[in-house]
Design brief:
single chain, alpha+beta, 4-stranded mixed beta sheet, two-stranded antiparallel ribbon, 17 helices, extended
Length: 322
Amino acid sequence: MTKADVGSVPLSELVSAKRMLRISDLLPADSPRMNGEDVDHARALAELDVALPAIVVHEPTMRVIDGMHRVAAARARGEEFIAARLFHGSVEDAFVLAVRCNGSHGLPLSLADRVAAAERIIVAYPRWSDRRIARTACLSPTTVGALRRRSNVHSGQLNGRIGADGKTRPEGAALARQRASELILLRPDASLREIAREVGIAPNTVRDVRKRMVNGESVLPSGRQAVARPSHRAETGMPSDLDRAGGVDQLLKDPALRFTEGGRLLLRILQSCAMEAGRWGQLVECVPSHQRHRVVFLVRDYAERLAELADGLDREAPRVAR
């Protein structure tokens, strides 16, 4: 197992089969909970008349990775042994696994806990992408990016960051183009596809970089970062007072969307978002405080996915028009 695995591989593939361990052999967790365990939560678990789920233990150190509240509950019950699954990775891997586990079940981590965990993961895994660390710590990628900029960790000459799927991607368009230009100088006989594959960009982008180098131009298109993107309304000519619900109603009448699986899925997503502004405020009020951080993470994550969908449609529009 590598560091790229621990943040993405299912827990069942990272730990051993369940076995019984003597509670007295266990050491306290290297926990992301800065204030330690919640006594009331452990007491509530002890009072349950059910077998507690297996904990996760770091075998090299016998420290508890996930389940300190269950350990405390078992002690309160007077039990000598507890069901456990063993993890064999490094100490840094074990901490990431603890953050993952605490973010998916049990007593939620506080915002301060999640921020501190993300800061530690940034140090241990500087090549992980902001999005990947955000998913592990249940934060937004924007928050992780801000934490990275405030930290003393620098990626140096790293060519990219590792995403949740384990693939390395360039940190930005400018960096990718610069890296491509360096490879073109070093290996002038290399094909566009070879360079594109190594840098992680499209062959057409490499072709554009090479053309600019031949013409003595900057490899980064002039004004690329300064040009403000026109609003969606300006591009489409839609009125500013567009009725969202009415817009969805029009889409619902289109057979090209209604009679395809992908189209129906898109319509369901758009229908779920087409409601009056006042009702969004009601959704804020209905979320319990102990689930708020999860809802915030999911909403931001879905918003980014929808933005990526909109960007993809924008890119396709000119080609379709031709």
